[in-house]
Please model this.
Amino acid sequence: MDNIKNLISVWDFFKNTEKPIILYGMGDGADKVIREFEKLNIKPYGVMASDDFVRGQSFHNFRVKKLSDFEEELEDFVIALCFASQLPEVIENIKAVSKKHTLLVPSVPVFGDNIFDREFYINNIDSFDRAYNLLADNQSKKVFENVVKFQYTGDIKYLTECETTKDEVFNNILKLNNEESYLDLGAYRGDTIEEFLSYTNNEYKSITAFEPNPKNFKKLQEYCKDLERVNLWQIGSYSKNTIINFNNKAGRNSAITCQGTPAQVATVDTILCGKKITYAKLDVEGAEKDTFIGMEKTLKLFKPKLNVAAYHRSEDIFSIILQINEINPDYKFFLRHHPYIPHWDTNLYCI
Model:
């Protein structure tokens, strides 16, 4: 881990390059990158999108162009990738573009304000080291180091060098059986319940699921209508029982905001009320720290196997490990990155 600070930060690269910078993407990620570029006085040259998405539109006062347009217009340029995908064909296209041009990913968090730059890494280096030393196997340490290098440099090669499949995790680490009592936090429309059932051959002891978004919750109810021993809660997980605002997005990114739709949240310990669970999945869109505060009793008493999204905030890759270890030091920690660009679907598995 010591050699990371000797690499060139992706933000320093874009700040110092003399080549034109082309932003690749037009969504929320591009908005965040542009805001950071403005703070650093970095001026992008233009915006590109994949050929099928270019229809003469504008983004931040730039006319969106195809890669071939910039190749005809400029002798050389660098690309800042500003969107995320796990689709194999999209990932292959990103790789193909990166072979023709310098392509880096400015690391902006899904949630929170901490940008993964040189200052962030140096300020948290002790926490990075402590979390790294708690990892249980060599693959986890490789993933940790590669994901940190990716966030620091923006180079996608670090992700492709360490990715593994979900089968490897479920078969070798989690090893679910037909006696599992499953807790799904951020159940969305039932896709992770479907995943759970696929690895238990549709046999289980119980399923408890939280989903705060009303539209998603209706889809979840529909998916689970024929399942037995299922308890569904239209709530979010949190550090206390209260009402807070969520954004109105119907997708996975139903997250806590200052303004939005009021929704009920509660602690896991309150809802379970002493009920044992053996396996929990957490994809709670940046509320992981508060969720773990609200399930301390469950983690201490039952030590359920955990499947935790570890990529929403820049600090998640170390802070979640350290928090769980403080609550219950008997856990073993495994980190895996599944195919995705940027480092989304980097998950922490605890047993």
Observations:
- The domain at 176-309 is CATH 3.40.50.150 (Rossmann fold).
